[in-house]
Amino acid sequence: MKRIIKYALLFLLAFLFIWTLWFLYQKSVSKPPVFNLVKPKVATIVQKTVANGTIEPRQEIDIKPVVSGVIRQLFVEAGQKVKKGDQLATVQIVPDMLSLSQAESRVNSAAIAVSNARMNYDRNKPLADKGVISASEMQTYDIALRNAMQEQEAAQDALQLVRDGISKSTGSASNTIVRSTIDGMVLDVPVKVGSSVIERNNFNEGTTIATVADMNDLIFKGNVDESEIGKVRLGMPVVITVGAIDSASWDAELEYIAPKGVENNGAIQFEIRAAVKVKEGQTLRAGYSANADIVLARRDSVRAIPESVITFNGSGDSAFVEVKNGKDWKKTYVKTGLSDGVNIEVLGGIGDTTTLKGAMKVMEEGNQRPPM
Fold it and tell me: Measured on CA atoms in the order 345, 347, 353, 354, is the torsion positive or negative?
C-alpha cells in the first residue's frame, strides 16, 4: 500500500512539472496581433476652431444722474422692461451751501432792483400822462422795470433749481428725475433708496443708478489664438453653445476681428464678436459663458477614413496607410484633404472598398501587443 501511494505521488509531481513547463512555453510563444479592419466611408468633414467668451448685449447703458443727492424713490428692479424716457428713480438734492447762498443773494438783489425800477416808473408815469416828459423817456423806465422783473423771475428759478432741482420754467423736465435713455431691460440696479449718488461731469463718471440693455440684440464676445486667427474671416458662420444650457445651440455670424492682439497668460489672443441669432422661444441671459465653434472649412459627402489609421512621415508632406494584401499588409501612400481631428478626407490612393489596418484588438488575457 505504501508503495502505491509513493508511486502516485511521484506521478503527480511529474505531471505538475510537465504541465508547468507546457504552461510556461505557451506563455512565451508570441501570438500574432489581431487588428480591426477599417473601410472608407462617406462623411461630412467640418474643420473648426473654438473660441471661449461670453454672451453680451450689443447696447448696454449705465444710467447716471445729472445732479448729486440721495435716492428718494426707485421705480424699477432688475429684469423689468422699460421704454425710453421711463422714470427709473428720483434724487433728492442736497444743495451746495455756497451755491445756495449765491442764489439767495441774487434773489434779494433782483427784488431791490425791481423795487427801484417800479418807483421810477410810478414817479414818471403821471408826468408822461400830462405830457411833461416825452414818450421815449417814459419807455426807458418801462423797459427798466420789465428787465428788473425778468431778472427777479430768473433769480427765483435759479434758487429753486439749486434747492429742489426743478423750476417753473423747466416744468416736468426735472434734473431730479432719472430716466431711461433707451428701450430695453433693466439688468442691474446697484443702488438702494437712501444711497448717496454723484452726478456725472467732466471729472467724475458719476454713480450708476441702473444698467439697461437691449436683450433682443445679443453678441458673442470671445478670443481666438494667434495660430488660428489667420484662418478666420468676417461673415463666417458660428455655432454658439452655452455651458449652462444643455442640448441647445445658437447660430451666429462673425462680424468683428480685432486688428491687434492682446497677451493673455503668455499667448496672444485676438478679440472677435459675432451677432447671435436668437430664435423665437429661445432665451439667453447676459453674462453667460459660451463657446463659439467657427467653421473654417467644410466638405460634404466625401470619402473619409479615421485619421488614426494614417501614418505621416517626419516632414509631414506625405502619408500612408496599410492595405490588406492577402494575409499581409501593404504600405500605400494616400493623398489627404480636410481633417476635423477624428476623420480625414482622402483624395486618392485607395478605393471605396479598400480594407485598411486599424487599431490592434485587445487580447483576451488583457495584454496588448504592439503591431509587428
Answer: negative
